[in-house]
Amino acid sequence: MAIFNHLLLALCLVPLVLSSPFYPPTCYSKVLTMAREVTQWAAYLKRDHETSFCMAHMPDLYVDVHNSCVMYKMRTYISLVEGLRQRRCAYTREVRKLGVTMRQLFIIMSEKCHGDLAFKIHDCAALER
Question: Which range is the signal sequence, renumbered to this chain (predicted)?
């Protein structure tokens, strides 16, 4: 019986030990990660030769989750991405992915993490870099 108890204890502890460096992200860390990804993805699409023809007129995007103007900036950018009229632009996988990811980030910031985020600055010009 003692061997069975030790085996059961070992079977319970092994998954716990193996998963220890993979803590689930907090809402704040998830928003930071997604904001960095969206900023990098938008910059990549402006440089990419396949999508640059439709993204060239889009403003530069910098998502700073500590800036109180970020929600307005994201809402505007989402509208611009979703409003692309050129068929080749609106239906490319990369542009759709950017729009969907930005919408997810906007929803997470406005609804799910609303209490976890603290806007430390109010500088709308800083988001226009």
Answer: 1-19
